[in-house]
Write a structure and sequence with these properties.
Shape: globular
Mean pLDDT: 83
Structural class: mainly alpha
Helix content: over 70%
Oligomer: single chain
Low-confidence stretches: 1-19, 398-405
Distance between the termini: 9 Å
Order of helices and strands: HHHHHHHHHHHHHHH
Largest sheet: none
Length: about 400
């Protein structure tokens, strides 16, 4: 397959030029949007056992509830070209944040499993739209700083995840143990972010944004790589607290461990992408971070009691460092914002559909065989991600150079 040209600053056409919005404000709003794309997930993770017991769900059903947003991420990402071509990143991201707000608000009324599943579905659709459109904005306005901006975006997402994990137990205590209020309150910051998001961003010029690169073997390899890592990420977000509670710890201690886990991701997302940016070859950084993730998951499985915090930090550093690099790979192999959006949509769509299986399979394995089998499943998923990560050689600078696979 012929190599794609290296990313270059795109030409744009649309209702507004980049300067009319301001690059600084766009960067700020990318971070603000990222902050609101994870509390819906982690607020459920720290309260999943209470939700499961209150609604009479099995572990498999609770895993399915936790997997709904990730299924949405996958399905919506696969039609992400329609979002790019029809709505644009301006209007599209406002709609995405409004859906997140609506999903959180609907959880406030989550009196039945049906309402909870529906609310989680709506919020998941919003998260999915946001994750598809943000790479387009980064590629359009920050083409020469894609890795740095993607690191900032994932750092913001991790910070939002940490806030959701840390604040939700306190909100539950303040509401007398009412998890519905603690989950629904996250609609407020998402609504504020939606109102502040600039809708007059210029639309990227390019060929048909809806035509995803289904025949690109490298895209499928990227999807398998990101998907196997996402299995571990989504499973730990949903089940780390119940796993730790099963070891005899309190709900608050489990939430604190999830906060430590997400906090370590923030630190790694801040440090690893800038360091990796000195080289066009992502493989060394991916190898180190994914090895750390394997060590952390293995430690949580084999020795959760004396070293829970240490293993959570190691796993968090591994995930926080590898995730933004994985999201940057489609940008590395794209020449225009539209192309980056299409490749990111396909890769994220397939990967998130894989990742959605994580919480569900984890819950099924817990019901049938206990937590040990479920943790072995996560360790195997990370091992697959590690092996696939070693296959991504840096794209050639010469657009006519053949892509050495």
């Amino acid at each position: 397959m012929a190599a794609e040209p290296s990313p270059a600053a795109p030409s744009v056409a649309g209702p507004a030029s980049p300067a009319s919005v301001g690059l600084g404000w766009i960067a700020v709003m990318i971070a603000v949007a990222g902050l609101n794309l994870r509390p819906l997930l982690t607020s459920l993770g720290v309260s999943l056992e209470a939700v499961r017991l209150d609604l009479g769900l099995s572990s498999a059903a609770a895993g399915l509830l936790a997997a709904v947003p990730t299924f949405c991420m996958g399905a919506v990402a696969l039609v992400g070209g329609w979002l790019i071509g029809r709505l644009g990143s301006g209007v599209g991201l406002r709609v995405a944040l409004l859906l997140v707000a609506a999903g959180c608000a609907a959880r406030w009324a989550g009196l039945t499993p049906t309402v909870m599943f529906a609310a989680t579905l709506v919020g998941g659709l919003g998260i999915a739209c946001g994750q598809v459109l943000i790479p387009v904005v980064i590629k359009q306005y920050f083409p020469d700083r894609a890795a740095l901006m993607m690191g900032m975006f994932t750092t913001a997402m991790n910070l939002g995840a940490a806030l959701g994990a840390a604040a939700t137990p306190a909100l539950m205590d303040g509401a007398g143990g009412d998890w519905r209020l603690a989950l629904g309150i996250w609609a407020v910051p998402a609504l504020v972010a939606a109102l502040l998001w600039p809708v007059n961003l210029a639309r990227p010029r390019g060929d048909d944004a809806r035509a995803l690169p289904w025949r690109d073997a490298r895209a499928w390899r990227m999807a398998l790589f990101l998907g196997s890592g996402s299995i571990a990420y989504m499973s730990l977000l949903a089940w780390l607290v119940p796993f730790y509670v099963a070891q005899g710890h309190s709900q608050a201690q489990g939430a604190a461990l999830l906060t430590v886990f997400t906090g370590a991701q923030i630190a790694a997302a801040l440090l690893v992408p800038p360091l990796a940016g000195f080289s066009r070859d992502r493989r060394p950084a991916l190898a180190v971070t994914l090895l750390l993730l394997m060590v952390g998951v293995a430690g949580l499985w084999w020795s959760p009691e004396p070293g829970g915090v240490l293993w959570a930090v190691i796993a968090g550093v591994g995930l926080g460092g590898s995730f933004p690099l994985a999201l940057t790979l489609p940008l590395d192999y794209s020449a225009t914002p539209t192309e980056a959006g299409r490749l990111s949509a396909l890769v994220q769509g397939l990967a998130m559909l894989m990742g959605a299986l994580g919480p569900l399979v984890f819950g099924v394995l817990r019901d049938g065989f206990g937590f040990s089998a479920a943790m072995l499943f996560l360790l195997l998923a990370v091992a697959v991600s590690f092996l696939l990560g070693l296959t991504f050689r840096p794209p050639p600078l010469n657009p006519f150079e053949e892509d050495a696979r």
